[in-house]
Write a structure and sequence with these properties.
By secondary structure, the chain is an alpha/beta fold. Helix content is 24%, strand content 20%. It has six helices and seven strands. The protein has helices spanning 46-52, 77-90, 105-115, 160-165, 198-201, 203-212, and strands spanning 9-13, 20-25, 30-35, 56-61, 98-102, 118-124, 187-193. α3 (105-115) links the parallel β5 (98-102) and β6.
Length: 214
Amino acid sequence: MHPQPPRRTTHAYGTPKNRLVYDRWGRFGRPVVLLHGLFYDRTMWWPVAAELGDSCAAVAVDLPGHGDSAARDDYDVTQLAEDLAVLINGLALHRAPVIVAHAESARLAETFAAAYATQAVLTFQETPAEPPGTTRELDTGDLSGVPELYRQFAVARHDEALLAGYRSWFSPPAHSEPRPDAMPPRLGAQMRLGGRFPHLCDAAGFADLLRTLR
């Protein structure tokens, strides 16, 4: 008999006020934490997590105010990095994670890596230096490269209140290319990818890239 593919399970961490909802795939291998950008949710990672199979222990988290995670009065990135660290530690995986961040979540990934042991950080479609004035100014982007089956995962749900709450997450990148001498000592590697949704345009290829970061 062929082994069954890893099944997605959904969990919640925290109190009702700071609840974070996340999906898990697999229990062994390097932890891979998948973070979506503003106005998306954890479902954008389902195709990649399915492709990872049993090679990694994947975790896709809904940011506060997105998907099934509770909205907050304060979206301080340092506090959320601490919450993420407690969540990961509670999974008892005993290995430093690879953090993969889409758009605005690059700020969270880098904050996490500066404070906690991290195998690697991979970011793409990083946020501009200044936030848009309203959600109507956000670029919806061209989805022609995304397979039709996966386009449902690339639909943003714009919300003016969330944009206001997350304004502090917008900042210019520290440098145009990752530099080894700029990495915190807890971070093994850092990569930046081009493209808007490379994980959806080629989910299998993206999963193969993540395996190389283990």
